Every structure is written in structure tokens, then in C-alpha cells.
Automatic annotation (TrEMBL):
Name the UniProt record assigns to this protein: Tektin
Region Disordered, residue ranges: 19-86
A single GO BP: cilium movement involved in cell motility
Bias kind Basic and acidic residues: ranges: 28-56
Protein localization: Cytoplasm, Cytoskeleton, Cilium axoneme
Presence of the UniProt keyword Cytoplasm in the record: yes
Amino acid sequence: MSSFPEKDKCPKVCTDIGAFKKAAKSPEQAKEEIKALEESKMKEPETADTRSHGPEESEPSSRPVTTEEYLPNLKPGPDGKVDWTPLGKMTGTRPAVNKYSISRYSLSEWRKHNENVLDPEIITESNIVEYNAKTSMMQAFGNIDKQQNENFKRLRQKAKDIFRWKVEVERACKAITEEVELLEIERQRLKGASRVLMLPESISKECLDLRSNRFQPDLVADLAEQELIKEMNLVSEVRSTLKNTLDQIEEQMAINKAAKHRIEYDWCDKTMAYNTESINLSLNTKSNTIMFKPGSTRFGEYTAPLEYWEYFCRETVQNCEAARQKSADLRGSLNAILVNGGRKLRNQADRTDIALAETVAITQELCTKLEQTLRDTLQRIADMESLIANLQDSIRKMDAAMKLAQTRLDNRNNWRPHGESVRDQPHLGLIEEVKKIHETVTSLLGQLKNAERVRQDLLEKRIILERDIASKRKTLNIDRDRCGMVRSHYPSASELAGY
């Protein structure tokens, strides 16, 4: 646990008493002075009135005794107004701004502001706070160091206990593992047949799952689908035939595996616990991996007492040893295993492969026709886009002619003087020209709209064709590539018979 360096520690003998120096005035004296100052300010207006009636009677000796500097009577300025009066602070009035001065405060206000700024009270308080804070921090670090040393010893003792039980559990885990291997050797043929039988079932199921991923148009119950379903039913029949023979040995194997799983799980927990305690022992306040963990002081959901932990460790080892002994007694009773149905499975697999090959050939032919149709559609889309571009260019060229005719008409309407503004043949011809241009543009726009509609229809047809081609290609990929690769691992008749 880190603590303050030597230079930050408080000296044994404190020679600096600045932090404990008594203030020059007590709070009561300061309040009395403030009250007297306010009373003197309230008397200033009365004194000013007396001096205005009898200037010859006011003498310097009659000035009020206050902490502020005495201000003599101010005479009116050129504008007839007094620049400053003692009532300024009470009424909020301030001197008028003129071309000579922009003053807003009196000299007494300025000096009082400076006294407030230079008040040493906050400095004294900061010295006291600093001393108290350093003392509290030194005590806190000392207590934390002591607590950490005690917890380090407890963690080290707990790590030793976990390691002792970890060795016992590891020994029991090795014993049950060896027993499982010996039992596996004794029933090699029976277990081999059962294990090989899982492969045809998984292959058939995976093929059905893969074919279920086809797109919507290709989700049909074809011949290949029917043969795969027959294959799944045949595997189920063969498995039910072997089940009666495997019941007894599978029950014992399940017991062995459950015991092995429990002991391995316990060994894994103890290994993780031991590693956790080792990490905790290696941590200190200068480690890079420590951080705040909100809620870490709460007990976990599955926290148990220490007595239950020791009972659980002992019970797990005893149960594992009992299962191992029972399995050793059963190993001598396993004699023979019989597997039948391998040839049926192999024949059904051949029929399924033929059905898949026929489906792949039909799908390939259809995909070729769709691709040719798509190429023709793309060519028509390109032609329509070229036509649309030509129509748009023609319409843009008509804009210049329309601008010219309308500009001429506007000039003739606005710039011919009174009697010259007549409906002559040039004017009527320009009007006819505007009409013809408008009709032509309307016709071209109709053609453009039709072309765009046809192009949109072609684009939609293209999307449909591309979707169908993608569907067919995915079907080919599933039936020919993925299902073919999966079914290439189908076991032979001898393997299905358990040899």
C-alpha cells in the first residue's frame, strides 16, 4: 500500500503557526463595526442638510467618526447637478456622465472593495484544511496497509486448501477416464456400429436442412426429397433394432460419463479458483489490471458456507470412485454385438444419389434458359435507356426554340410604342410557333413517359429473372456441391455392419 513520501509528511514539531493564528477581530466586533458604519451612512443626509443651511457653523471638527474617508460638500457642476451625494448607494443614483468623467463609484466604495479582496480569512482556512487532510490521509493509508496484509495471509491459506483438493480431484478424474477407455475397448464393435449409424442419420438430416434453405420457387417435394425422407425412416428403424442391445451398456456408460463430467467440472472449478487466488496474491496497488468494480462487495448468487464446500469436495470424489468400481465389474459381462441393416442403408443411399443427380440436371437446363432470357432483357434495357437519353436531349433543344419565340413576342409586346403595337403577320407567326413548339414538347414528353414505363417494366422483369437465376444457382449449389460433398462421406456397407 502506497503512502505519502517523506517530503509530504507533517513534521514532528510544527514551527509554522500561520494556520492557527487568531484573527485580528472577532465576529462580534466585525458585526458591531458594520452596524456602526450603516448608522453613520444613514446620518450623512441629515448632516448634509444642516451644512446647506448654515455653512458658517460646519467645522472640520464636527465630522462623523466613521471608517470611511470624509467627503466634503460637492457643489453643483456646470449643468446644475451634483456629481455625487451620500445617498447614491441607498437610492441607486450615480453621477451623470459628461465629457470630463465617467466615474461610477466613490473612493470609499473602491477602498472597501479592495479590503474585501485582500481579506486573509480564506488563506487561513485553507492552511487548516490542508493540515487536517494530510493527517487523515496518513491514517487512512496506515489502516489500509494493515488490512491488506491480513487479507493476503487469508488468501494464501485458502489457495493451499484449494490446491490440496485439486490434486485429489485430478487423481480421481484420471482414474475414471482410464475406466471409460477400458470399457470403450471392450464394447468396440457395438459402440462402433452405433457410432457409425449416427453418420448416415446426420448426413440425411443435413441434406434435408440444406434443401430447406432453397428459395421460395424451388421449395418443391421432388423425388430427391422423397428419397431422403425414406432414408431417414430407415435409419430410425435400424437404430430401434440396435437399441435393445445397447441399453445396458449405454446405461453404464452414461453413469461413467456423468461421473467423469462431474469430476471434470469440479476439477475445472478448482483450477479456476486456484488461478483466481494466485492472481489475487500477485496483485498490488501498482498493478495495471486493477480497476473499480461496482457491486463487488456483495456475495454471489451461489455462494455457500465453508462446511458445505468441504462436504461437496469429499462427496464428488467418493461418487466418482463408486462409479469406477461398478464399471470395472461390468466390463467382463460384455460379449458380443450384432448389427444388421447396413446393406439396406447402403442401397437406399444409392437410390437417393440417383434422384439428386436427376434433379441437378433439370435445374441446370432451366438455369441456362433463364440466363439467356436475362441477356436479352439487359440488351433491351440498354436500348431503352439510349432512347430515353435521345428524347430528353430533344426536349432540351426545344427549350432554346421556345425561349427564342417567347423572347421575340415579349419584346414586341413591351417595346413597340403606341400605334406600332399591332397584331401583324410576324406577331401571329410567333404565336403559332410557340403553339407548335408546345405541342411538340408535349408529344415528346408522352413518348418519354412511355419509354420510361417500358424501361421500368424491363427492370422489374430483370429483377425477377435475376431472382430466379439466383434461386436456381443456389439450388444447384445445395444439391450438387454441398449435398454431394456431404454424401461423399457416407459409410460403406461393412462399416454400417460394425466391422
